[in-house]
Amino acid sequence: RELSREMSRDSRVTDKYAFAFDIDGVLIRGGRPIPEAIEAMKVLNGKNPYGIKIPYIFVTNGGGKTEQERCVQLSKQLELEVSPGQFICGHTPMREMVAQYKTVLVVGGEGEKCRHVAESYGFKDIVTPGDIIKDNPHTTPFRSLTEQELENSKLRNYGKVKIEAILVFADSRDWAGDQQIILDLLTSKGGYLGTRSENFDEGPPLFFAHNDIIWSAQHDHTRLGMGALRLSLEAMYHGITGKKLEATSFGKPQIGTFEFATRLLQQWRKENSGIDAPPETVYFVGDTPESDIRGSNLFNEHSANEWYSILVRTGVYDEGTTPKFTPKATCDNVLQAVLHAIEREK
Ligand code: G3P
Ligand code: MG
């Protein structure tokens, strides 16, 4: 293919293809960049045999900070500027629920961070597990709030507050306490704490930012993720009520996340490079077959352009096994994945 055709109107940016990157296990592991990630980013920004620049976005199931904060952190880690206009995290789609639910329980993350994320999305009335424990310390018999938590938590009579939805934004830091409170609400009469529904069919809806059972952190082996909390809650809810727990998870592999990513990428290419058409191919680089490869393969079947999945060996995927969902290519690391795509586009 002719290189000249690949150039956009006003720069060295190719309009033919683009990348979408998973973060944990591809670019970052346990808060540190994967060594090849920094070089891979340089290749995308012109350090390649053709001198072209290739647009890219980030699609992570992770979260726990505002998109803005997360981009500042990622910019430092990857030694380049990352804009919120190229970033989607697990809880990003939850901002669309602001109009639907006024009072929400926000679960997970460090300290008050997820309360701030929910505020940044525009939620009007945010309750955290800490607020509930402050109001009634008997809620969690084996967990007391620290002084800092007591100071941050908002005191109210929660028996009088109707909690309309439960939103798990980020990984729980206190599985026992958080699950107790979620179960209290699920089995309540209409979201009022302290009440019990007779048939367990009046509780608020439950949403998770994503459904990864395991993820790749600093430990040699994968660690339990938000999907594991969901499995645990399902088992407990069934044990208590005899019923199946209904819940919704966002993030990858949901098609909606890939549709969102398509819109974001289109916007990003338009605003940054003046390219007003979708790329022919999006290379999706991920480490988790169940989320990244499954989602991009499925989306490829529905999408007008090609979504080409690349599995890397730096995260969840264990080389000794056959991935449950087959990628278009498997590479040792993100740098090899980027070079593979450039070679394929040559
Ligand atoms: O908690 C985050 C983890 O489950 C996955 O993050 O970047 O691999 O989608 P990521
Ligand atoms: Mg990952």
UniProtKB/TrEMBL annotation:
- One GO BP annotation of this record: glycerophospholipid biosynthetic process
What is the designated name of this protein? HAD superfamily hydrolase-like protein
Where are the coiled-coil regions?
none
TM spans, by residue?
Answer: none
* One cellular component (GO) term of this entry: mitochondrion
Has UniProt tagged this entry with the keyword Hydrolase? Answer: yes
Its domain of life reads Eukaryota
Q: Which UniProt keywords apply?
A: Hydrolase
Query: GO: which molecular function terms?
Result: hydrolase activity
Q: Which organism is it from?
A: Neohortaea acidophila
